[in-house]
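BACKBONE GEOMETRY TOKENS:
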Amino acid sequence: MSLKLKGVMQSTVTPLKEDFSLDLPTFEKLLDFHVRTGATAISWPHHKGESLNLTMAERRLFAEAAVKVVAGRVPVSIHVSSLAVEDSLALARHAQQVGADAIIAITPYFWKPTQEALYDYFVELGTSIDLPLIAYNSPGHLGVEISGELLSRLIVRLPNLIAMKDAGFHSEKFLEVSRAALALRPDFSMIAGVEFLAPSVPLGCVGSYSAAGAICPNLCIELYEACISGQSVRARELQYKMIRLWDLFRDQYPSSLKGGMVLMGRPVGPTRPPLPTATRERQAFIASELRDLGILDTEPHGW
């Protein structure tokens, strides 16, 4: 597979109307905004996109829209993970049918499969389509992890496994899987789950799926460029700012992120229950934090 992922990639939120139905026109504007402000790839719907609160029909609709709107300007990957494996397989087939460039899949939800069961799951998914596959590791949320040994076996078995998104935020584990992957597939992309780039790039990371890019794309790109150019002091300073932003947005994620987008002139509607929607009081607090970080004066406003 020739697709090579790197840089600041955007996993978009899901715009909703006040009645919690999908807002397609705003989704199209958001996709275009991300591409115009430097995203090197688009992926939807990660958990930031409220994937588990969407129906299969909604996911198919917006997956098709993402491919159509981006129109080949950057690669588009579709997150296909669902509670039922059959739904994941169906979403993967649909992604291929509508022209997506890749699929991404996390380890199964709720259950805690063995490493052998995880191997079988990813092999079934990866061999069901002809698209590149991105594995997604989030042990803190799901209680299981993709080990270096497992990733090595999957790379040997799946020629279309091109990357892994790691949201474990554990340097020792990241180095383990990075070393295992790059030894077998030197062009394999290790991707940080959010913008923890300063500690990850020296260990083989080539980019991130951005958490803050909907708010501050300039800062995200500046951090990435400082990291890959070896400006360690500058990278550390920018990483400190990004950590403050992540601490701000991770509360009821993505509720606070959507609240921040209102302040930047890019409203995307409420968050679908059971997640809360950011209140005016919460938005006022977010505004004070963004002002203190200099975000309000240095980042684009509006679409």
User: Anything to note?
Assistant: DSSP finds 13 helices and eight strands in the chain.
